[in-house]
């Protein structure tokens, strides 16, 4: 697959990608994550889906991402939501932020894009003693016969190098990443939700994926989009569609006691 650049699809990303459900923050609260006043750093923040949820809960949030166009969209969405997040252009592996500055480091839907060992070490440096890291995903599920399965098949037909098909929404390798970096108290949880998407929004959501507009040339995106529209009309005429998703998260602690 050619180089993935989500900045190329920032408008679709902001408009059509369903963000993490607020219920994720309800679950994380039980781990002491996302409480009012906490200093939270959201790595790979994109358009701020997870950062905004933390800010809505009263946390002081910094969002970091290498794609400036995504951060511009994040600021627009924050204004609409009535929250303020500090955004920084940078890489998860070398943020340039000060030591022990955060109570929580989060990474939503992005850990697979990082150099894991470096990102985990950087998170450890940034966290205060006893601080927590959370890696979360909100993945569509290609269940047999579903519109997701048909869509993935179509992406592969137009972009055979795409490597993210057939996911289960579970990411056990990230646990090893955290243990190897010295994090302790590793716990995971997951639950499924169905997300309604109109045909237009599903087409936009797929354009905003790594396998389509973030990596294909414009003419290839147009050919794919026409094929997807035809597939939806012919095989999945119900509008809106109910898209099965899985929320999954791993939580761990930085060694040491909180001050």
Automatic annotation (TrEMBL):
Keywords: Methyltransferase, Transferase. Gene3D superfamilies: Vaccinia Virus protein VP39. GO terms for biological process: methylation. Residues 41-135 form the Methyltransferase type domain. GO terms for molecular function: S-adenosylmethionine-dependent methyltransferase activity. It holds the Pfam family Methyltransf_11. It comes from the Bacteria. The keyword Transferase applies. Belongs to the methyltransferase superfamily. This is SAM-dependent methyltransferase. It comes from Actinoplanes octamycinicus. The lineage of its organism: Bacteria, Bacillati, Actinomycetota, Actinomycetes, Micromonosporales.
